[in-house]
Amino acid sequence: MLKFNQESGWSFENELRCFIIFKRLELVDFPRGMQSDLCHVLADSTTLSFSSVSAKVGNYKSEMGVNNPSHSSEATKYIVKSFGLMSLLELEALLTGYLIGKSENYA
Questions:
Q1: H-assigned helices in 1-107
Q2: Do the beta carbons of residue 86 and residue 94 sit within 8 Å?
Q3: Per-residue pLDDT averaged across 75-80, rounded?
Q4: pTM here?
Q5: What pLDDT does residue 23 have?
Q6: Is 86 exposed, middle or buried (0-12, 13-18, 19+ CB in 10 A)?
Q7: Which pairs with CB-CB distance under 8 Å and at least 24 residues apart come from 80-89?
Q8: CA distance 82 to 104
Q9: pLDDT (tens digit, 9 = 90+) per residue, 2-61?
C-alpha cells in the first residue's frame, strides 16, 4: 500500500477525495470556478492547504490526459492506475467503504 508522511496531511483518504473532485469536474466538463470551490471545501475540512489540494487535482488532470504531464506523486499514479476507470458513484462507494473499515465503531 501507499506510505504517507503523517505531518503532511496527505493520506489515502485525501488522495481519493481529490480524485473524486477530478471525477466530479470531468462529469460536467470542467466548468470554470468549480475546481476552486470544491478544493476550498476539502481544504477547509482537512489540514491541507487550498493550493496543495488544487495542485493535486491538477495532477489528476495530467495523469488522466486532460492537462500536459506533470510531476505526480507515486500515490497519484497508484490511484489512477488502480481506480481510474471507476465512475464517480463507484469511487464514492469505495471511499465510504474505506471510511467504514477504518472507523473505530466498526464491529
A1: 12-27, 34-44, 50-63, 74-83, 88-102
A2: yes
A3: 96
A4: 0.92
A5: 98
A6: middle
A7: 80/19, 83/16, 83/19, 87/23, 88/20, 88/23, 88/24, 88/27
A8: 26
A9: 888 888 999 999 999 999 999 999 999 999 999 999 999 999 999 999 999 999 999 999
C-alpha angle with apex 77: 66 to 44, nearest 5 degrees?
80
The identity of residue 94, as a single letter, is: L
Residue 12 to residues 16, 17, 19, 79, 95: CA-CA distances in angstroms?
A: 6, 9, 11, 9, 9
The C-alpha cell of 9 is what? 496531511
pLDDT attached to residue 106: 59
Amino acid at residue number 63: E
One-letter amino acid at 101 equals: G
What is the DSSP-derived secondary structure letter of residue 66?
A: S
Dist CA 100 CA 107 (whole Å): 10
